[in-house]
């Protein structure tokens, strides 16, 4: 005969369930409808990508370790994906939202992204990754705050503003794609946007005497930008998820794909001041402005002229980049607490040298890395890898070093192993600034210098307080070196943030492999994963 249950057992069971529920990280749910709509950012009617009728799209506000569930309904007449710049997708490249990892959402279809902002804080953004959709909008900001009781190395600001700045062309995205497909380069941008608006289309209202945080991301496709605020200094506090040494700047360069946040104190007479964003290393210089509005100014404009910015000076930008250092005493959610992981004392196991180049292949303009110009496969690489579909890609088809040979087309995948600790040197022999992103990772930018890289260049590396970030710039005729622990299994996109170059082949995939094939190292394929190409008709997992 079964013994009667004790009331104490029920109490203990209830308490255990309560503790588990309380311990689970919060969930935030979104439903996004993707449509085309008429937009006029530079005064000319264009076909823009709207999210829930908005351009830019809705901002995601989250806290470290939050689970973000976004159900995306594609109402475009074309396949669609969103990618999440800087979100590391720990153990889950399935959620990265690029064609190498995900089958596109078909017209009229939907897909639910299920992400966790694991061990991350800081400033990020999302964007559409397929075709040339990025030139049509569809982007928005992501703000990840620290968990309560985690100390932040500055007082809470009175407000937290997002600036999504970037170059823009009046041609529709389909026309731009056609230009690239025909073997030609993109035309020069027509202007700059700030939060989807042209000249003086934005106003940021502040109270005199208070301090505000500005998060600035360069969401453009072609050019670096510089930002400055008339009569005010910028106190840099965070770069792409890392607290920085708090250094004051008159202006900041923000290269393609990058995100910075700084504090501004409204310590001037109550007037309206000008926020200026201008292109770098271009001729002509493009400019856009916004208003830094004191709430008690009555609309009086500052008599000072708008602040001039740097234009084509490479050394100015290089020296500023070198001056940005990691705050070793700040708390930060990461696998190794900020400042306690001595990245410079760990021996690297492998060196990769990556050289970008402009190529002509089959009579058309292409861009390449180590002479390899990437072409997409008929099946996303991560999907093909999971199902062991042969002939889609070959691990190791991306060489570790420049060959100096002619460019060629290849679905390039670099093979690597979990827990390798690699040195990657980006080499730029061309005459324009390059900007690179590595999905799934943050890395330490240990050095950048003019001229060719040699093993002796390591003597100049910063092995103590280099900033950890997810993008990097490489100046003309220069190199930039990073250290990166390969601790995130998956298929990860390494790409140029110059979107025309990315589209024409300046990218590849880094396959980080673990022989354990364990859920400890990598999440299984999502139950709702879309399947396409040679994986069509296969099963994911039981729902």
From TrEMBL:
Key words of the record: Signal
Location of the Plastocyanin-like domain: 35-147, 160-297, 379-515
Protein name as annotated: L-ascorbate oxidase
Family: Belongs to the multicopper oxidase family.
Single GO molecular function: copper ion binding
UniProt-listed Pfam families: Cu-oxidase, Cu-oxidase_2, Cu-oxidase_3
InterPro entries from the UniProt entry: Cu-oxidase-like_N, Cu-oxidase_2nd, Cu-oxidase_C, Cu-oxidase_fam, Cupredoxin, CuRO_1_AAO-like
Organism for this UniProt entry: Lolium multiflorum
Residues of the signal peptide: 1-23
Keyword Signal belongs to the record: yes
């Amino acid at each position: 005969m079964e013994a009667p249950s004790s009331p104490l057992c029920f109490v203990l069971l209830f308490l255990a369930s309560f503790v588990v529920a309380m311990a689970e990280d919060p969930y935030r749910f979104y439903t996004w409808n993707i449509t085309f709509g008429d937009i006029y950012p530079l005064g000319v009617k264009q076909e823009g990508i709207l999210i829930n009728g908005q351009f830019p799209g809705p901002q995601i506000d989250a806290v470290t370790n939050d689970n973000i569930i976004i159900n995306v309904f594609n109402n475009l007449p074309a396949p669609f994906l969103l990618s999440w710049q800087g979100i590391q997708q720990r153990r889950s490249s399935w959620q990265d939202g690029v064609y190498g990892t995900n089958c596109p959402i078909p017209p009229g279809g939907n897909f639910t992204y299920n992400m966790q902002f694991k061990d991350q804080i800081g400033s990020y953004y999302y964007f559409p990754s397929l075709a040339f959709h990025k030139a049509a909008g569809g982007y928005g900001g992501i703000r990840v705050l620290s968990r309560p009781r985690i100390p932040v190395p500055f007082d809470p600001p009175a407000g937290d503003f997002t600036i999504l700045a970037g170059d823009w062309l009046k041609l529709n995205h389909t026309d731009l794609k056609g230009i690239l497909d025909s073997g030609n380069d993109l035309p020069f941008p027509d202007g700059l946007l700030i939060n989807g608006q042209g000249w003086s289309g934005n106003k940021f209202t502040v109270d005199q005497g208070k301090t505000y945080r500005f998060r600035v991301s360069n969401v453009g496709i072609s050019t670096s930008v510089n930002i400055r605020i008339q009569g005010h200094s910028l106190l840099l506090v965070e770069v792409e998820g890392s607290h920085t040494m708090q250094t004051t700047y008159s202006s900041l360069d923000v290269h393609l794909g990058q995100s910075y946040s700084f504090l501004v104190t409204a310590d001037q007479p109550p007037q309206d001041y000008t926020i200026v964003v201008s292109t770098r290393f271009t001729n002509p210089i493009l400019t856009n402005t916004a208003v830094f509005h004191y709430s008690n100014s009555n609309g009086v404009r500052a008599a000072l002229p708008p602040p001039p910015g740097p234009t084509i000076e490479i050394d100015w930008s290089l020296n500023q980049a070198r001056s940005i250092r990691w705050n070793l005493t700040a708390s930060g959610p990461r696998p190794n607490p900020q400042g306690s992981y001595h990245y410079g004392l760990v021996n690297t196991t492998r060196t990769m040298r990556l050289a970008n180049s402009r190529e002509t292949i089959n009579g058309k303009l292409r861009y390449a890395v180590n002479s390899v110009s990437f072409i997409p496969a008929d099946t996303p690489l991560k999907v093909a890898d999971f199902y062991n579909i042969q002939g889609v890609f070959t691990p190791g088809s991306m060489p570790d070093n420049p060959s100096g040979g002619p460019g060629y087309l290849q679905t390039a995948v670099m093979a690597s192993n979990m827990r390798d600790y690699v040195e990657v040197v980006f080499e730029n022999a061309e005459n324009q600034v390059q900007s690179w992103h590595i999905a799934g990772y943050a890395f330490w930018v240990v050095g950048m210098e003019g001229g060719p890289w040699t093993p002796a260049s390591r003597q100049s590396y910063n092995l103590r307080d280099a900033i950890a970030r997810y993008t990097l710039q490489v100046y003309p005729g220069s190199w930039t070196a990073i250290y990166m622990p390969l601790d995130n299994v998956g298929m990860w996109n390494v790409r140029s943030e110059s979107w025309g170059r990315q589209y024409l082949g300046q990218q590849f995939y880094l396959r980080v492999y673990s022989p354990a094939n364990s859920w400890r190292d990598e999440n299984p394929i999502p139950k709702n994963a879309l399947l396409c190409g040679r994986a069509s008709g296969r099963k994911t997992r039981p729902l």
